[in-house]
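**User:** Everyone, produce a chain:

**Assistant:**
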Amino acid sequence: MSAIEELKDRLEVCKVLIIAPKKVAESTWTNESKKWDHTADFKISKVMGSQKERLRALQTNADIYVINRDNVMWLYQTLGSDWFFDMV
């Protein structure tokens, strides 16, 4: 998270995609970011749940998007050339 914060401060990245195991994607990234002053303001969108919920999460303006490994192919097929992440 500190590396993401540093790169965002330098304006080298804007939208970050985190691919994680389901349990980690569900809670770890959100919970951990709140523990540290320098990452507490990160807006994190969890791209999980039903297809409708995942699409809504992608439309959310966030710093970090977290997805579980099982949905990566869906994400690629859904976004295609509209891939907006500049860090994975």
Remarks:
- The first helix runs from residue 2 to 9.
